[in-house]
Amino acid sequence: MIQLHDKQFVPFISAKEIDLAIAKMAAQITADFSDEIPVFIGVLNGAFMVASDLMKCYDSPCEVSFVKMASYEGTSSTEEVKQLIGLNQDLTGRTVIVIEDIVDTGTTLVALKALFESKNVKHFKVATLFFKPEAYTKELPIDYVGIRIPNKFIVGYGLDYDGLGRNLPEVYQLKD
Ligand code: IMP
Ligand code: MG
């Protein structure tokens, strides 16, 4: 058991299970895109670990980059404008494969899709290590899923609880 801030977490998914899930995703993506040069884009901060390990398993030519999402309050009180920080590349006609650590409600993913489609990409694909089907509220299909998990809060392997836990090599879940 580990303690992060005020909460306790128990072991949930081992480093070995994570490795196997990532190797499987990499093989699927290779089979689908080895005839072109896809651009992998990791979504910071959470996806730094999965992006690194996925890229080491992907053995065809590819490019790798990272973005961060920023939300700004618009001029009207409820309006939220999402932006991508760090994308300084022309993606016109390219296949973009976004790498996410986790898809929960899908709100972030839908915003990402809109942002990338405005850049005239050829394909927009999503690879996420973790997916919470019970929490997902969107229609957008998720192309590559590593591990489906119940609707529980997890930390480790890039995922944090209020800034802590990202460095853990395996995944823990909130103790009930
Ligand atoms: P969304 O609800 O799919 O938009 O997910 C938003 C973000 O919430 C994810 O990118 C994560 O940063 C964070 N998140 C969702 N579920 C968890 C979790 O179980 N642990 C840690 N962060 C999470
Ligand atoms: Mg995230």
Task: For this entry, give a set of tags.
176 residues; alpha/beta; 6-stranded mixed sheet; 3 helices; binds inosinic acid
Query: How much is the radius of gyration in Å?
Result: 16 Å
- What is the averaged pLDDT score? 94
Helix content: 10-25%
Largest sheet: 6 strands, mixed
Provide an overview of this structure:
This protein has a single domain (14-152), classed as Rossmann fold, CATH 3.40.50. Helices cover 23% and strands 35% of the residues. It has three helices and ten strands. The strands form two sheets. Strands 5-4-3-6-7-8 form a six-stranded mixed β-sheet. Strands 1-2-10-9 form a four-stranded antiparallel β-sheet. The longest helix is centred in the N-terminal third of the chain and has 19 residues, at 15-33. It is globular. Bound molecules: inosinic acid and magnesium ion. Magnesium ion (MG) binds at residues 43, 46, 101. Residues 43, 46, 101 line the site of magnesium ion (MG).
